[in-house]
Design goal:
alpha+beta, Beta-Lactamase, Profilin-like, 4 domains, eight-stranded antiparallel beta sheet, five-stranded antiparallel beta sheet, transmembrane, diguanylate cyclase
Length: about 550
């Protein structure tokens, strides 16, 4: 029983299913592993090129910031040791004359320096943070800024990311790398000192006296959106003013667009600390960039020690880098479609197509082999049936019958159950063949086998052991019970006529011999058949169409 269940569980078609399932799972796992490697490579590439782009921007910012620190150090040195020359005395004298003018400009040497622009002492009173109360500090500051102007003239905005460098003094004047008209002086100066980046340079607002970045604002001179970095200038615990450097968001956007790799899909955005976009490489609106305020907040809320990272949101892959020289972040957003157009995406697509093609081929092979196995099994069943059954009567043949009979005999002997055997021979069968032909004989044999089989129980074993001879093994059946069964078979055969052709019917009878193990005290099938065969011939001698069970 267990062996039968095991054989059913491990039929060849089941093994084929299992083998192909293992191959499919293995190929899928291998493809998944390769996809994970590609995913990791893609993420690394995205972070790497964004870090490289950020590094390039950092380099540009560093150059500008280094320039600003250079000028602050120069001012510190000039304030420590004021350089008194004819030009400086001339500048101080010019200031003494012009300081009460509403607007004034001092340009000692137009070819070698930049002009100083300022407002009058009276106008100075309107601004609480401004003061000219200390003449010595004022003279030293004017002398120092004059020295700065000699160097500032060499500033070249074409080679720098910033477009303007200022020195804004609390003494009511400023120095700019970009000259403006005289009528714009008051407007420029008053606007500059009212901006948060100047007000926040106060020692109370900026106690560490470090560099500060402003928020984005609109320039006075139609220069578009601007962001400014400032650096306070102090000496001997006195706040003289601050250096300011203006960066056009358009220039930063142009830099991002020019340095963005041609093979890289997606877009890069630079955000300030307030989550406001400073520059977007593709120039589109923020609403079209595929990133929302919640995702921005998640990125900006990362720990300060996290310099770069990534997040996934739906089908979008977002990488970010925290800038060192700018108070903000650079963010890249790439959609699934953009990622698939990249090199890694194309490799992934090829990998998926290969997996799909392999799966289709595997499925086709599975179906072909499965059908072949089914046909082979069907052929095997056919051959097995033909080896064990009589093709005419569809009952067990002689060898298969004795094999099954011996199994029943061993079972009954092991459990001490009676075992009976019926030997049956059709009467006058030879004359049927001789008179009506072999076709009539075949019809008679088929009819007889059908009648006998319908009379028997499920556990009984029936076989055709000769031309017109049949043998029946009856497990757990006594001699008397076997005789009753034999008699039922005889009666059913005798009660029906067989249609030979349209004009003729035949009446079929049989002679039967019965033997039993409880009578003979022997379970050997050959012995029981021999005894039943002898009794069969006695039934023949007794006139046929009868059952013989003793004597």
């Amino acid at each position: 029983m267990i062996a039968d269940k095991s054989s059913r569980a491990f039929r060849p078609e089941h093994i084929v299913h299992i083998c192909f399932a293992i191959v499919f799972v293995f190929s899928t796992l291998l493809t998944w592993r390769e996809a994970q490697v590609l995913k990791s490579s893609y993420e690394t590439d995205q972070r790497a090129w964004l870090a490289q782009l950020a590094s390039g921007l950092e380099h540009q910012l560093q150059q500008s910031i280094d320039e600003m620190y250079f000028f602050r150090n120069m001012l510190h040195h000039a304030l420590d040791e004021p350089l008194v020359t004819d030009k400086s005395r001339e500048a101080l004298a010019a200031f003494a004359v012009k300081r009460h003018h509403p607007l004034w400009k001092i340009n000692i040497n137009s070819e070698r320096s930049m002009p100083l622009n300022g407002i009058s002492d009276e106008a100075l009173q309107s601004f609480p943070l401004l003061s000219r109360a200390d003449p010595k500090r004022l003279d030293d500051e004017l002398t120092a800024v004059l020295e700065m102007s000699y160097i500032l003239q060499f500033n070249n905005p074409v080679n720098d990311l910033h477009y303007r460098l200022w020195y804004i003094s609390r003494a009511g004047f400023y120095l700019s790398s970009v000259q403006d008209d005289k009528q714009e002086t008051v407007k420029s100066y008053s606007t500059a000192i009212d901006r948060p980046y100047f007000l926040n340079a106060h020692p109370q607002s900026n106690p560490d006296r470090g560099m500060r970045w402003s928020e984005i604002y609109h320039s006075l001179y139609n220069e578009g959106e601007v962001v400014t970095v400032t650096l306070p200038v102090d000496h001997d615990n006195y706040w003289y003013g601050e250096l300011a450097m203006d960066f056009s968001t358009e220039a930063i956007q142009r830099y991002l667009r020019q340095t963005l790799p041609t093979w890289q899909a997606g877009h890069v955005m630079l955000f300030d600390r307030k989550h406001k976009p400073l520059a977007i490489s593709d120039g589109k609106k923020m609403s079209e960039q595929g990133i929302n305020s919640a995702e921005l907040a998640e990125i900006f809320n990362k720990r300060p020690d996290e310099k770069s990272g990534q997040i996934r949101s739906g089908t979008r892959f977002i990488t970010w880098v925290r800038l060192q020289h700018f108070d903000g972040m650079m963010i890249n957003v790439q959609t699934l479609d953009e990622g698939m157009r990249g090199e890694t995406g194309r490799v992934t697509l090829v990998l998926v197509l290969m997996w799909g093609l392999f799966t289709l081929v595997l499925l086709a092979c599975h179906q072909a082999i499965f059908r072949m196995i089914r046909r082979l099994l069907s052929l095997q069943e056919t051959l097995k049936w033909r080896a064990n059954y009589d093709g005419l009567t569809r009952q067990l043949n002689r060898s298969a019958f004795f094999e099954q009979a011996r199994k029943q005999s061993a079972f009954c002997e092991r459990h001490q159950l009676p075992l009976s055997l019926i030997q049956l021979d059709l009467d006058h069968f030879k004359s049927v063949n001789d008179t009506w032909g072999h076709h009539a004989g075949d019809v008679v044999l088929t009819h007889a086998a059908s009648v006998i089989a319908r009379t028997l129980r499920k556990e009984d074993v029936l076989g055709r052991v000769g031309g017109e001879e049949f043998c029946v093994v009856l497990p757990d059946t006594s001699l008397a019970e076997a005789v009753e069964i034999a008699e039922r078979i005889r009666c059913k055969l005798a009660s029906k006529e067989v249609l030979i052709n349209a004009m003729k019917t035949l009446k079929v009878t049989a002679s039967l011999g019965v033997s039993s193990s409880d009578e003979q005290q022997d379970y050997k099938i050959e012995n029981l058949q021999s005894i039943a065969d002898e009794r069969l011939y006695r039934a023949k001698q007794a006139g046929r169409n009868c059952v013989s069970s003793g004597g």
